[in-house]
Write a structure and sequence with these properties.
Blueprint: H1 2-9, H2 19-51, H3 54-80, H4 95-123, H5 132-159, H6 162-191, H7 196-223, H8 229-240, E1 247-255, E2 261-270, H9 275-293, E3 295-304, H10 309-325, E4 330-338, E5 342-351, H11 359-370, E6 377-386
Parallel strand pairs: 2-3, 5-6
Antiparallel strand pairs: 1-2, 4-5
Helix pairs in contact: 2-3, 2-5, 3-4, 3-6, 3-7, 4-7, 5-6, 6-7, 10-11
Length: 390
């Protein structure tokens, strides 16, 4: 069914780097979500009202929130597809994150209201009328939500959308919630225990948890989370394989929404190489990263000295000291500024977050190890970079 819908409503659906394809996939997900959730809401609301079941009514409201969320998702994908303009030169792709945040807020509000209703039912319980129609609607709802979970998981994986993957997880969670509602109705019918309010409260708590989880997933990229580790690995693997590249550091990826990623990177090349050749290679690498990974990459060229034995000896000595202190420590941009009686060693160190506060200790450790009574005094000048970028 998913393949049929994709082929029917999304032209060139395999070309996921195309922003129009991405928008079409998001629109398809939103439209299907609206249709399915509205039907489930109406069916559950009817049987919940007829059976006087707060847990079934709560589950119906959950489907209504899902339908509202699908509307917001659909609008979000439409707005995210707007081209860049003078006021927003990086495009509007972050609208997708904002739509996900709006969905999360709606889910949280509905969850609070349902929790209030369930508590009232616990305090003043009323019997639930169980029927074959009620059971059929709930079982049918579980089947529909299972398909929607698989459907949105497939679409979310196709375009690497956290919003659609979150929608898939929400559909999976709905299956669990509806199964709990069905269990409550059966328990009340066959055992006579007044558990409807308690199960309704459990569904409300589950809705609140889902809303909070979705909020965290959408707020994180808006705040500026670290780049996808797989994307980082793909970029540096490609860069490190290129001729003339001796090393790299300071990879920074800026996410302006799905499909709108900008990055900067420093690459080290032998200072004796022809600068024009290096410039041409850098241009080629930037174009390839845009073509293969849809990342607008800007590369900074760092010429390094490779034919000075004393610099090489000192650099290797400092690397050994850093690795002995912590294997995660690394350096780059190593330079030496010689004088008659002292020498400045200037370099950058990539510092893991949990070692923050140990900067002075690391510098003193290197200084003490190098200054052991020789004729030259070494002054250590370190700039500390975040290890997350190196």
């Amino acid at each position: 069914m998913t393949n049929i819908l994709l082929k029917t409503f999304v032209k060139n659906h395999r070309n996921t780097d195309d922003s129009q394809v991405r928008a079409a996939v998001g629109t398809l997900s939103g439209a299907v979500g609206i249709g399915c959730n509205v039907l489930l809401f109406l069916g559950k609301l009817l049987v919940g009202t007829l059976s006087d079941s707060v847990s079934i009514t709560a589950d119906a409201m959950n489907n209504l929130s899902d339908a509202s969320g699908s509307i917001v998702t659909l609008i979000g994908f439409k707005l995210a597809d707007k081209p860049a303009d003078a006021d927003h030169p990086f495009g509007h792709a972050r609208f997708e994150y904002l739509s996900g945040l709006a969905v999360a807020v709606m889910i949280l509000l509905i969850g609070l209201e349902l929790a209030k209703t369930s508590v009232e039912k616990i305090i003043s319980p009323t019997p639930v009328a169980m029927s074959l129609v009620t059971a059929a609607v709930l079982v049918g709802s579980i089947a529909v939500k299972l398909w929607m979970a698989a459907f949105n998981r497939r679409l979310g994986g196709l375009i690497q959308s956290t919003t659609l993957l979150a929608t898939a997880a929400d559909s999976r969670n709905d299956c669990i919630a509806t199964a709990a509602v069905l269990a409550a109705a059966l328990i009340e019918h066959f055992a006579g225990l007044r558990v409807d309010g308690w199960f309704g409260l459990a569904v409300a708590v589950f809705i609140l948890y889902s809303g909070w989880s979705l909020a965290k997933d959408t707020i994180s990229p808006l705040l500026g989370e670290n780049a996808n580790p797989e994307l980082q690995r793909d970029l540096v693997d490609y860069i490190s394989r290129q001729p003339k590249v001796l090393g790299y550091h300071d990879l920074m990826v800026h996410d302006y929404g799905p499909g709108q990623r900008f990055a900067s990177l420093h690459v080290e090349m032998d200072r004796n190489e022809d600068p024009l050749d290096c410039h041409e290679l850098i241009d080629d690498m930037e174009r390839e990263c845009l073509r293969s990974h849809n990342v607008h990459l800007v590369i900074h060229y760092d010429p390094v000295i490779t034919d000075d034995p004393e610099l090489t000896r000192l650099k290797q000595a400092v690397i050994g000291l850093l690795k002995a202190r912590d294997p995660r420590l690394s350096l780059h941009d190593f330079r030496m500024v010689p004088g008659k009686r002292h020498m400045n060693l200037v370099f950058d160190v990539a510092l893991p977050a949990d070692l923050k506060g140990q900067e002075a200790s690391i510098r003193d450790m290197i200084s003490d190890a190098l200054n052991t009574g020789g004729e030259i005094t070494y002054h250590i000048v370190i700039t500390y970079d975040a290890a997350a970028f190196n």
